[in-house]
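Following up on my earlier message about dioxothiomolybdenum(VI) ion. Here are the inputs again, as you asked, copied directly from the submission form:
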Amino acid sequence: MIGQPISRIDGPAKVTGTASYAGEDHAFHLDAPLYGVIVGASIGRGTIAAIDTASAEQMPGVRHVMTHLNAPPQAEPDPSVPSLYSRAFPVLSRAEVRHYGEPVALVIADTFEQARAAARLVRVDYVPSNGAFDFTADLEQAYAPRSVNAGLAVDTAMGDLEAAFRDAPVKVDVRYTTPYEFSQPMEPHACVAEWKDGHVTAHFSSQIISEAQVAIASTLGIDKAQIHLRSPFIGGGFGSKLGIHAETMLAILGARAVRRPVKIHLTREQIFHVVGLRPATTQRVRLGATRDGHLVALGHEVTMSSSRHSEYAEQTAATTRSLYAAPNRLTRHRLVALDLTRGEDVRAPGDAPGLLAVEAAMDELAYQLDMDPIELRILNEPKLDPERGVPFSERRLVECMREGARRFGWERRPTRPASLRDGRVLVGYGMAAAIRMHFQGPASASVTMYPDGGAVVRADMTDIGTGTYTIVAQVAAESLELPIERVSVRLGDSTYPRTSGSGGSWGAGNITNAVHRASEALKEKLRDAPVVPAEGITCTGKVAAMSREPNYQAYSIHTYGAHFAEVGVDADTGEIRLRRMLGVFAAGRVLNARTARSQLIGGMTFGVSAALHEDGVVDTRSGAFANRDFAQYLIPVNADIPTLDAILLDGFDDKANPLGAKGLGELGTCGAGASVANAVFNATGVRVRDYPITIEKLLRGLPPLSPDAADRSLADANLREPHFKPEAQKRGDARRRQSH
Ligand code: MOS
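Thanks, got it. Here's what our run produced:
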């Protein structure tokens, strides 16, 4: 049963519309809710001098307008609480505006349309102050945080990087940049909240219910037991629902103020400003090697944006500490505090942007050495974790690269850049390694056997669309030796046993091991007392935090993979098209081959997106994101993603947990973008180091437009002289120079 590619057990509920999402209050048997609409600040930094709500309050249907002048007192976040997502999240708590779009008012009305119309009449007078909105302009202000995400070290150093790099016969010293990115799940953030007898019930869209409960309790200064949270179905999270945001706190505060259920959802545009973003980075990568390709120096220094009001340090250089052997090494994280929305985890935090730099720099080194990029990586494969000095629990990077190369036809790769053509299209092959940390967080689950022979699993675990319901049912069915139809899975409710939810790719490993342990205990109990009473027999299983698991100290536990991409670049227009892509991954035991593959191809798609599309652009005058919708913040559409496949090498990491399974939700995106970038270089000979690689950046390096472009035919295929330049074109160049 475990590993079988069975379809999602919640699929029928989803396709028939009976799966209830946060905004669908009718599903929750509440009184009819009122509707809340959030008014966001139209400046990036300053103070609210006056706020006039009179016109809004006089509009039909309006029940309440909340601003910082009448919002109830709330606690401030305590930075000593290790998890950002467990900290208080006060809203409308100050006259100060700390970033563009920060909520300044909430309008509650009988209908959504009434609330929206009234919200437009809220008049705010601001006293703006000078904000810092320009990351690149403030780079010299960078400071060292006390720790980076997940409590990891800010800096590490071994040997003498400077000296080793200076003396290395072959070296790469490059700066890559990555832009602001956003999680942007399909389902917007939403909450409907209702108070009864001092207790609040909130239906919201959450990745980690247990942390949300702590955050809400701290904000309001009430007991966790007074807060009932439900998030049974979630339309994607990607990090943006690890913590709560304004819609949840405002629905809760609004419902208490009007003594009616209140529903709020963020608009797509609001998500760009109210929910956290992935910091922009500039990353210096230094690779020093011997002439035969052994790394002697490896440096990865990251400077990223952060927010003045809430520090967030993405662990961008963290997996660089584990990826390749080199005696002299250095990693570093620095932050630039800006007046922007706070940073939060976005789709493979750290590893995704870090590998965009390191795995492209490795490609640059391979060309300098005139070496196959796979051979270069194999040559620098470490025997022990290079910085921790401990063995790897299961490291199958080389196997992933070899298997991928074989399946992809890597031997057909043109070794010289810009040497393969298909008509007017320059064709290139690229590869990159994938690595992702494996986390284990505390989790518990209960399994109850009923007299009818059916079992029910309960946990406050969330299924963010990844297939959690299904893998939990598979594990319980196998452990209990029941047909899967006899197992019901109930998730997403704070009254169920606590877990670390879904995030950081830890969800599957945590919950399935807790369920496995609960099921094993239950089986034991049933052996002793085979008659099941009417109320059923329940057992609970637990998984401890990795800090309490000796294996996580004694071993380096990661997941690995290798990406292969083939792109075509129009030689004249610079248009980049992914032609095909393959990822081969090893992440321990496969729990469900179908949902695992879906996770991985989704992650690879994010990688394509990071390489070629996504780019949050700040208006540096106002701190507003200029491209705050899906028309302008580009993400890949179906036409951008042709043949793409993910192969998962089944395994078993006996150091990670009893089921041998590790996370893989984010692995698919780690390194994926670099493989595309490396393919673009292989196609064109142009190395764009500022992501995303767009036409205008690429065109600067491409040879000028040739007048016969339209006439080129497939007869050009595999032409070895790509930069053919007839006389007529040279005249064209001269004309173009004149016009500039
Ligand atoms: Mo993930 S970005 O840790 O949900």
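One observation from looking it over: Residues 207, 237-239, 242, 345-347, 349, 503-504 surround dioxothiomolybdenum(VI) ion (CB under 6 Å). Hope that helps, and feel free to reply on this thread.
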